[in-house]
Amino acid sequence: MPTLKDQLRTDLTAAMKARDETRTRTLRMALTAITNQEVSGDAAHDLTDEEITKILTREAKRRREAATAFAEAGRGDQAEAERAEEEVLTGYLPAQLSDDELAALVAAAIAETGASGPAGMGQVMKVVTPRVAGRADGSRVAAMVRSRLAG
Fold it and tell me: How far is CA 39 from CA 34, 45, 56, 147, in A?
C-alpha cells in the first residue's frame, strides 16, 4: 500500500503532466514542508502517514487563514488562490467530523474523565485531541468542550 508521501509524489507528477499550476504548486509546497520536517532535528527520519497528515492539516489551516486575511484586505484574487490551495490539501486529509460526531466524542471524554466546569477543560482536551486527530480543527474542538463543560 503506497504511503501518503508516495501518493503526493505520484499526484504531483500527474499534475505537472496535466499542466495544473495550482495543484502542482500546492503539492510541491506540501512535499517541501514534509521534507523540511524530515531533515529537522538531530538525524533525518521518514515521517509516518499520521505525521504527514498533521503537516497537511497545518498547511491547510494556513491557507484558510491567509484566504480570510486577503479577503478582508480586499484582495479577492489572492484569497481565491489560497482557497484553491486549501481545497487541494483537504483532499488528502481524513473526512472532517460532523458536529454530532464531535459532540459524541466530547461527551464520552467528559464522562471518562469525570470533568466538570471550566477547570476540567485540560483533562478533557488531553483525552479528546488524539481521538479527533486531523478530523476536526483544534479551535472547534476546544469550543465544543468549553460549551459542554459550561452547561
Answer: 9, 7, 17, 40
pLDDT tens-digit readout, 114-126: 877 788 888 888 8
Three state DSSP letters for 62-84: HHHHHHHHHHHCCCHHHHHHHHH
CATH number at residue 77: 1.10.1510.10
Cell of 7: 501518493
Residue 70 contacts residue 82 (beta carbons within 8 Å): yes
| Residues in the chain, total | 151
pTM exceeding the 0.85 threshold for the entire prediction: no
Q: At what angle do helices 49-72 and 21-39 cross, to 10 degrees?
A: 130
Check whether residue 51 and residue 112 sit in a common domain.
Answer: no
